[in-house]
Write a structure and sequence with these properties.
Layout lengths: L2 H6 L5 E5 L4 H12 L3 E6 L2 H12 L6 E6 L5 H14 L5 E4 L14 H29 L6 E6 L13 H21 L4 E8 L8 H4 L2 H8 L10 H12 L10 E4 L17
Parallel strand pairs: 1-2, 1-4, 2-3, 4-5, 5-6, 6-7
Helix pairs in contact: 2-9, 4-5, 5-6
């Protein structure tokens, strides 16, 4: 096998991507299928997941996909999804906790219910699904080839900004901290735990700001690298963390943001002549 193929291969690995029908989850699922993995895609809209899986299987890539409904917004939903996964496989090499919600409103109008709803999906559901699937991850893990968990954080969880999405930004900061906590605890089980901290990508969640080329260009103008993220950016990061190439990386919050996380805007003495 060629060196690069061996280094970045995920052939034969079994994966679950929550919220994998659209957006960043779809990008990650596509990368895994293209690289030979068997990928389960789950979200609240089961038909969307089935359709996404059909499209991925039509690529004729080395892997394959299966889509079905799964809701991480409640205890019942988490237990049901975990049960459906266990019916399909007795081991899990890769878990990508991508499912997420956002809510935007002015501070004075931000609803109490919206806070709980976002935290339930983005943090509580993520934690409990990981716990429920831990036996499958442990079974697939080994000293030479750990099982992998990737959680979806955000640049908004690393930077003190909200843009009205108060519960979202707080939830992503929590995801980052939980990622480090679980990385520490799971290391002895040979499971790596990392997180993506993406900047702007085109998705349903960001459609209000990236749906048109004109809007996307405005958003891109605020990114140091002057573009929004592309599917290949998520694909490369996914394959890195899930393959042999990333087997020694755990507890990392990987910024995939074109430099937004270091773009604090402070100039101080730079303009003094």
């Amino acid at each position: 096998m060629p060196y690069l193929d061996e280094l970045f291969s995920v052939a034969g690995k079994k994966a679950l991507v929550t919220g994998g029908a659209t957006g960043i989850g779809r990008m990650a699922a596509t990368a895994l299928v293209e690289a030979g993995a068997e990928v389960m895609i789950a979200s609240r809209k089961g038909e969307d997941c089935s359709h996404a899986a059909d499209e991925l299987n039509a690529l004729g890539a080395g892997g394959k996909a299966e889509g079905f409904a799964g809701d991480v917004g409640s205890e019942e939903g988490v237990l049901s999804l975990a049960g459906d996964v266990k019916k399909r496989t007795d081991r899990l090499d890769i878990l990508i906790n991508n499912a997420g919600l956002s809510w935007g409103a002015p501070l004075e109008e931000f609803p109490y219910s919206a806070w709980a709803r976002v935290l339930n999906v983005n943090v509580t559901g993520l934690f409990h699904l990981t716990r429920e699937l831990l036996p499958l991850l442990v079974k697939a893990a080994s000293f030479e080839d750990p099982s992998r968990i990737i959680n979806l954080g955000s640049v908004m969880g690393t930077q003190p900004m909200a843009d009205g999405a108060y519960s979202y930004t707080a939830s992503k900061a929590a995801v980052h901290h939980l990622t480090r906590t679980l990385a520490n605890e799971f290391a002895e089980k040979f499971i790596t735990v990392n997180a993506f901290a993406p900047g702007p990508f085109q998705s349903r969640m960001t459609a209000f700001a990236t749906a048109t080329e004109e809007k996307a260009e405005i958003v891109a103008s605020h990114v140091p690298l002057r573009r929004i993220g592309a599917p290949s950016d998520i694909a490369g990061a996914t394959l890195y963390l899930c393959s042999r190439a990333g087997s020694y990386v755990t507890g990392a919050i990987l910024p995939i943001d074109g430099g937004e996380s270091i773009n604090h805007g402070m100039r101080l003495f730079k303009d003094v002549r």
